[in-house]
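Table 4 source record.
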Amino acid sequence: MHSFESLHPVLQGLLATLFTYAVTALGASLVFFFKKINKTLIDSMLGFSAGVMIAASFWSLLSPAEELSVQLGYNAWIVNASGFIAGGLFVMLSDILLTKAKRFKGSDKTFKRSAMLAAAVTMHNIPEGLAVGVAFGSIAAGGATLTGAIMLAVGIALQNFPEGLCVSMPLYLSGKSKAKSFFAGQASGLVEPVAGVLGAAFAVVSRSLLPFALAFSGGAMIAVVCAELIPTAFEGNKLTAQIGVMSGFAVMMILDIALG
C-alpha cells in the first residue's frame, strides 16, 4: 500500500482503472467456460456494487467537493448542485444520443440488442473511469482520501465483472464465436483507463475546478446506478438485490469512516 501511495496521482488513476478494466475482461472471459450464469449471483453483485457506488458518490466525491468549495471560497451548494446535475445530464444525454445514433441493418434482433448493450456499457464506462481518475487526482488537493478512491475503484470493478459478462454472453448466444464475444466484452472496458488518466490529470492541474469535477463525477455515478445497476439487479430476486445494495452501502460507509 505504501508503494502505491507514493506514486504520482495520474499513475495511481491509471493503475486503478487498469484494474477495473481487468475485472471487465475477467467477467467477459466466463463466456469460454459457461453457457449460463446464475442470475441470483449476478443480481447480488450488481446490488452490492450499486450500494458501494452510491456511498462512494457521497463520501469520495460529493463531500470532498463541498469541503474544497468552502476552502476555495465558493458557494458550496451551487457548485455541488450544478456539478451533480451536469454529471447526471451527461449520462442521460449519452443514453439518448446512443439510442438515436445506433441503427443496425438486418433482421437479427438478438444481435441488435446485444450490440446496443455493448455500446451502452462502453459509454457508461467513460464517466466511471473519469470518476476514479478525479478521485485519485484530488487526494493531494484535499479531495478524496486514498481509502475512498480505492473503494470507489473496487465498487466500479465489482459492477464491471457482470457487465463484461453481460456483453459477451448475449453476443455468443446471438451466434458470434466465443473469441469475438470475449473481445467485445473486454473492449467495452478499455475506455476506463483512458478516462481515468484524463480525470486524474485534470484534477492535478486544475484545483480551482476540482470541486465541480468531483460533484460532476458523483452525479454521473448516481445516474449510472439509477439507469443500469438498480433496474438490472431488481429485475430478478428483489430481496437479493436489496440485501446487496444495503450491504454494499454499509461496507463502503464503514470503510470510509473507519479508515478515511
